[in-house]
Structure formats: C-alpha cells, structure tokens
Design a protein that fits this description.
The chain contains ten helices and no strands. With 187 residues, the protein is an all-alpha fold. It has a single domain (9-186), classed as Tetracycline Repressor, domain 2. Helix 1 (9-23) crosses helix 4, helix 5 packs parallel to helix 9 (145-165) and helix 9 (145-165) packs antiparallel against helix 10 (172-186). It is elongated, with a radius of gyration of 19 Å. The N and C termini lie far apart (70 Å).
C-alpha cells in the first residue's frame, strides 16, 4: 500500500506565498519553506522540479492576488484613474512585499529568476483595468487619455512608493482629491 502524501503542492505554494507576503520574496528558499511547512525539502522537489518553478508559481499567485485586490477595492470615485490609483496606493501600503515583487523589483532576489511581466501588464490584468480607464477618460472628453495616464501614473506610483517608506501621510480623501484635481487640470 502506498504511503499517503501529507505535504501537497497547494500547501507548499501557500507557505511560499505567505512567506513572500510576510518576509519578502528573497526569503523564499527551499530550506525556509520546508521549515515553515514542517517538512524536509524533499516534498518541495517532489512537486516542483526546481526552485524557479516554485518562484514562478508564487509570482503568478501574487499577480492573481493583486487582481483580486483591485477587483474588490471599493469604487468611490467617478473620475477616470482615481479608483485604480487609490487601489494601487492602498495595495502598496497594505501588501508591501507583494507590491515590491510585482512593481519595483527588476530582480526577485538572490538567484530567483521568474518570467516577469511589465508593470503595465500586471496593472492592466486580464480584465483590461488600464484600458477601461483610458476609455472612460476618452469618453469623458479627454483629448489624449494615454498621455494623461502616463502623467497621472507618475504621481500614483510615486505616492505608492512613498507609502512603503512611511513618507506618504495623506489621507485617502486627500489622495482622492489630488487625483481628481490632477485629472481635471491635465485633461
């Protein structure tokens, strides 16, 4: 009779993903994942051929997590780009390690190689988040919504990065008003 496997691929991925959220992607090593999962490294390499495969799975999970976060983020404004910007800044503040993995890091740590997507690809997602905002701006009369997106995104990304370091202390209401004001003046 075959021995029942107690450590599953889902358990390993869940552990590695939670480690990424709590400690950062650079800390996702076979030994650390095994210790946190309460097993040896053998189950990891039974279900993943190498660490790169596990890192790819964690990266994919991080993208899906951001997409879910954005889709569930409360839509409180009508101004194009404001809800997207608010969600992005909040994600940076609440999920700093995932934000760093998805939107800041060129590399993913010591030896960690994943097939990275561009910031735009992650942000736009399968649902066309950016495209939808650009379309809304065009329909609202913006002459060059792509250019406007580029300009407003510099502010949004800067605010998100500042929130990582604790240097962004504007309230949600103040941030939303800044985004709306920027949109109105720049369109």
């Amino acid at each position: 009779m075959a021995r029942k496997e107690s450590i599953t691929i889902q358990m390993i991925l869940d552990t590695a993903f939670e480690m990424t959220r709590e400690e950062g992607f650079i800390n996702v090593t076979a030994r650390k994942v095994a210790a946190k999962a309460g097993c040896s490294t053998q189950p990891i390499f039974r279900v993943y051929k190498n660490m790169e495969e596990l890192w790819e799975a964690v990266y994919g999970r991080a993208i899906a997590y951001f997409q879910d976060y954005y889709s569930l983020y409360p839509r409180t404004g009508q101004t194009p780009f404001s809800n997207l910007g608010m969600a992005y800044i909040a994600f940076a503040r609440e999920e700093s390690h995932l934000f760093e993995l998805l939107f800041l890091s060129q590399s993913t740590g010591d030896g960690a190689h994943v097939n990275r997507k561009s910031m735009y690809e992650v942000l736009n997602g399968e649902d066309g988040n950016v495209v939808r905002e650009v379309t809304a701006a065009r329909e609202a009369g913006c002459a060059d919504p792509g250019d406007l997106f580029t300009k407003i995104w510099i502010f949004i990304h800067g605010a998100a990065c500042m929130s990582l370091t604790g240097d962004y202390d504007l309230s949600e209401q103040e941030t939303r008003l800044l985004l709306e004001d920027f949109y109105i003046k720049a369109r």
